[in-house]
Amino acid sequence: METLNVLAVMHEQSKWTVTTDYLTASHSASGRMITDTDRMSFVYLLEAGDEYCYLHFDHKDWGALSLVSKEPAPVFVTNGEFTIELTHFFEELTSLLYSIEGNENYGHRFVEEVEKTFQQFYAQQN
Q1: Would the pLDDT of 71 be above 90?
Q2: Dihedral of CA 59/46/7/21: which sign?
Q3: What's the pLDDT band for 126 if we cut at 50, 70, 90?
Q4: Which residues does 41 contact at the CB level (< 8 Å), separation at least 6?
Q5: What HEC string does the chain produce?
Q6: C-alpha angle 20/21/22, rounded to 5°?
């Protein structure tokens, strides 16, 4: 399985752009997001043929994800050569945030950090 790391997340002209150092024409959006609680990461799944490739939004990227959760707009990933729209990004992120809140199945540390980082998201929902 390939793992891609986020280098930057920027909001520009009604869209979010995620920069990574590696992306190919064979990658496509899956429309799905999961978590990697051991790595303290939200993971967008990219498809690469019959396999998945993991685009990790590690703890250092959560501030940017918090902004995405408050300002929904299309999200794209690029390496400068190839660009892919990450379909259903906002819906998947918010679904995970609802699932994580108060749910110790994700692990105490992960839940605590998510609730702290995304506290404005949770406040808007109540």
Answers
A1: no
A2: positive
A3: low
A4: 35, 56, 57, 58, 59
A5: CEEEEEEEEEEECCEEEEEECCCCCCEEEEEEEEEECCCCEEEEEEEECCEEEEEEEEHHHHHHHHHHHHCCCCEEEECCCCEEECCCHHHHHHHHHHHHCCCHHHCHHHHHHHHHHCHHHHHHHC
A6: 95
Tens-place pLDDT, residues 24-69: 999 999 999 999 999 999 999 999 989 999 999 999 999 999 999 9
Other Cβ atoms within 10 Å of 26 Cβ, number? 12
pTM over the 0.70 mark: yes
Amino acid at 120: Q
